[in-house]
Amino acid sequence: MILKKQLENFGRYCVFMTRVFSLPDKWGVTLRRMISEIYKLGIDSIPLVVVISVFIGAVIAIQMQLNIESPIIPAYAVGLATRDIVLLEFSSSILCLILAGKVGSNIASEIGTMRVTEQIDALEIMGVNSANFLVWPKVMGFMLFIPVLGVLSMFTSIIGGVCVAVFTDIITLSRFTYGLQAFFNEWYVWYALIKCVVFSVIISSVASFCGYYVKGGALEVGRASTNAVVSSSILILLFDVILTKLLLQ
Predict the structure, then answer these.
(1) pTM score
(2) Total tally of structural domains belonging to the chain
C-alpha cells in the first residue's frame, strides 16, 4: 500500500510539473512575481546563510586541526581539508538541507493556505493555470538565486576558518592560507553550484506540490509543511549520491 501511494504521488507530481512548466499566459506578470520570489526566498535567506556558514567554517577548521595533528601530515592540510569540505559538501548539500527547512516550509504553507482558503479554486474558475501562475515564479526565482547563496556560503565559510587562524593559536594564518591555495580544483566549485541548482528545483517544486494538494484546514497545512521538508531532505540526499557519482567519477 505504501509503495502504491508513493507511485501515485510520483505520477501526480509529474502531471503537476507539466502544468507548472507550461508557457505563462502573461510574461510581464510572471516576471514581476519571479523578482518578488527572488527577494522573498533568496535575499531573505542571506542572513541565515552567512551566520551558519561562518560558524560551520570555523568549526571545520578547529576540528581538522585537532584531529589530524601528526608529524606525517603537513600543517597546511588543515586549510586544504577545510576548503574541500566546504566546496564539496557544505556549501551545496548541507546548505540546501538547511534551506529546505526555511524555504520549503515557507512555500508549502503559503500555497497550502491559498488552497484551503479557496484562492487557488478562484484562479482556476477565472481560467488561470494556477500551478504555472503560483509555482513557476518560485521555482525559477529560487533556482536563479541559489548560486549566489552557494558562492556566499563558500566565501563566508572560508572567512570563518580564517577567523580561527587569526584569533586563536590553533594554526597560523600563513599555513592555513597556504592550505586554501594548495592543489585547488576549479571543478569543485562548479560541482557545488550544479548541485545547488538541482537541489533548489527539488526544494521549491516538492514544497509547492505538497502545499498545492492540501485538503482540510490549518492542521493539514502544517502537516504539508512538515512533509515538504522531510520529502525534500530525502530527495536531496538521494540526488547528492547520484550527482556525486556522475560528476566526480
Answers:
(1) 0.91
(2) 1
> What is the C-alpha separation between 34 and 83, in angstroms, rounded?
33
Three-state DSSP at 25 gives coil
- 61 contacts 78 by C-beta, under 8 angstroms: yes
Whether 132 is in a domain gets the answer yes
For residue 77, the one-letter residue type is A
**In contact, 173 and 68? CB cutoff 8 Å:** no
Distance CA 155, CA 113 (A): 37
Instruction: Tell me which residue range forms the domain holding 58.
Output: 25-248
Residues 6+ apart with CB under 8 A from 79: 61, 161, 171, 175, 176, 177, 178, 179, 180, 181, 182
Q: Which of 10, 41, 46 is nearest to 107 (CA)?
A: 41
Closest CA to 107 of 16, 47, 42: 42
**CA atoms of 71 and 57, how far apart (whole Å):** 24
State how far the Cα of 112 lies from the Cα of 106, in Å rounded to an integer.
10
| Residue 176, in any domain of the structure | yes
On whether residue 13 sits in a domain, the answer given is no
> Would you state the torsion angle of the CA atoms of residues 93, 95, 101, 107, taken in this order, to the nearest 10 degrees?
-90
Mean pLDDT, the chain cut into blocks of 10 residues (249 residues total) = 78 88 84 91 91 92 81 80 90 91 91 88 86 91 93 93 87 85 88 94 93 85 90 93 88
The C-alpha cell at 167 is 584569533
| 126-133 contacts, C-beta under 8 A, 24 or more apart | 128/25, 129/19, 129/22, 129/25, 131/16, 131/19, 131/20, 131/212, 132/19, 132/20, 132/21, 132/22, 132/24, 132/25, 132/30, 133/24, 133/25, 133/30, 133/33
Find where cell 567519477 sits.
249
Please report whether residue 196 resides in a domain. Answer: yes
